[in-house]
Amino acid sequence: MTVTIAYRVAPGREAEFHSWATALLSVIAQVPGYLGGGILASGETGAEWHLVHRFDGDENARAWETSATRTQLAARADQIAEETGRRSISGLKSWFDGPETPVAAPPPAVQPPPKWKLWFVNMSAVFPPVLIFNLTVIPYLSSVNPLLRTLALCLTVTAIVTWVLMPRLQRFLKKWLYPPLQAFRGRHKRRAA
């Protein structure tokens, strides 16, 4: 079951609405049967925003729609936006019928992490190979021209950081670097048949 809710956000209150929608997604992620959701917005002032929720069945979708928690959260949204439409689709119906309204634009691009986080990740990737290179290789290159010695250091460290360390660090620290993405993903649960 997929539920799509359209909102017309009051001009100048877009950031507030986005914060509310993000908080709603983190609350609904705890609801039994919730499979995930997201926020769709064109980024233009006055354009409609859409919240999309996916549930594993009608019962869980109805339970959320009639819950006190949803009612309280919806009341907060009434102060900054007006609900303009609601659509529920069961199963694969949408694959064959097509959309009744134009498809919403993709969500805005994810903001890059703060500079201090990027600095920390870069330092974590660069410092170890530079230290190891200076302790193990540079003593053997003391008679080599400083320009060539520096070139060897740069080439080696850049290759190690680019292909070995940075991809692993980014995967390992993804939730810390991009926390808003976690709210959009929801929880995907597989149930045994």
Give average pLDDT, whole number.
79
Helix content: 40-55%
What are the segments in which pLDDT stays under 50 over at least 5 consecutive residues? 183-193
How is the CATH topology of the largest domain named?
Alpha-Beta Plaits
CATH class of the largest domain: Alpha Beta
- Please count the beta strands (DSSP E, at least 2 residues each): 4
> What gross morphology would you assign?
elongated
Q: How much of the residues is beta strand, in percent?
A: 15-25%
Give the terminus-to-terminus CA distance: 17 Å
Question: How many DSSP H or I helices?
Answer: 8
| CATH architectural grouping of the largest domain | 2-Layer Sandwich
**How many separate structural domains?**
2
Strand order of the largest sheet: 2-3-1-4
Structural class: alpha+beta
SSE topology string: EHEEHHEHHHHH
Could you give a short account of the major beta sheet?
Answer: 4 strands, antiparallel
| Gyration radius over CA | 24 Å
Written description of the protein model:
It is a single chain. This protein has helices at about 15-30, 60-65, 70-75, 95, 115-135, 145-170, 175, 180-185; strands at about 1-10, 35-40, 50-55, 80-90. It has about 190 residues and is α+β, with helices and mostly antiparallel strands. It folds into two domains: about 1-105, 2-Layer Sandwich (Alpha-Beta Plaits), CATH 3.30.70.100; about 115-175, no CATH class. The chain is elongated, with a radius of gyration of 24 Å. Mean pLDDT is about 80; it is low at about 185-193.
